[in-house]
Amino acid sequence: MQKIKIAIAGVGNCASSLVQGIEYYRDKSPDEAIGLMHWKIGGRQPHDIEVVAAFDVDVRKVGKDVAEAIFQPPNCATVFCSDVRKTGVQVRMGPILDGIAEHMQEHPEARTFLPSDEREPTREEVTLALHQSGADVLLNYLPVGSEEAARFYAECALEAGVALVNCIPAFIASDPKFAARFEARGIPIIGDDIKSQLGATITHRMLTDLFRRRGVKLERTYQLNTGGNTDFLNMLNRSRLASKKISKTEAVQSVSAERIADDNIHIGPSDYVPWQNDNKVCFLRMEGKLFGDVPMNLELRLSVDDSPNSAGCAIDAIRCAKLASERGQGGVIRSASAYFMKHPPEQFPDTEAYEMLEAFIAGEQDA
Question: Are 193 and 169 in contact, with CB atoms under 8 Å apart?
Fold first, then answer.
């Protein structure tokens, strides 16, 4: 069976964890494969994914083999597989557009982006690179707030006939016009804004759904997150957070018994703590009423390494996108988007999304 050839836009921490993971599981048996939601999808194992193209704008990554670039600053993801074999693929210069927030330059070089002075490519050049690489799937791992750049790469995917997995909160799959264009071209898209395997939002969603199922009225809730990677540094610019806050908030609102008043729900990145590096800490509080209008509250602290947590979902989303391509299914893949993404075109409770995904993998039409 042929490998799934992927292109990566944004060789940051999440890309680092994904590429490490492809190598890490290469010699594992199903019994040893801790941390995977699926050992096989469409007959393919994790190591059946191959990087054939990559784009970034940082001078420390452009021109380097992907296997080397993933360990360059400002990446600070946990190194769980240091011996990543060379891919033979050099990171290409990508368009900067709105990919770098101005305030990033006020921080130390080891923490921020250093844009390369190489000429930025045109859309036609990126499209040609995707086409010539033979990529099956393009993975969008750009920084939060890269709305213009995200649409640039989505256009390239459409023109090159490459499936898209949109891991950031730029609304591509959930934009009806973009979704219709992918469907018209017969190209799969999975998006938007990837969930962690077991992170703040999925935990918040499951607890909110639990309140609903047990008849507890959820009146107020917050989710405060801190971290020290470039994602959290980037999001200190609150103007880049609009789509992120919508994505995370709607992910929780969608499973609540009734919509929570805007003033009573706060979900989103809260602060940048450099020494946390890629560790993300979530502080969660939920207040509600039980039988007899008796008040209750729940508080939770969750600590996870952010990027490996994301890669656990990405490695499955990639295989689902390829599976859809092989079946001739274009447009939004509803089941995979609902299960893997915070802001899919249509929200479903996670248990239902899981059943939909398993049905899709088993061969049922993704209606």
Answer: yes
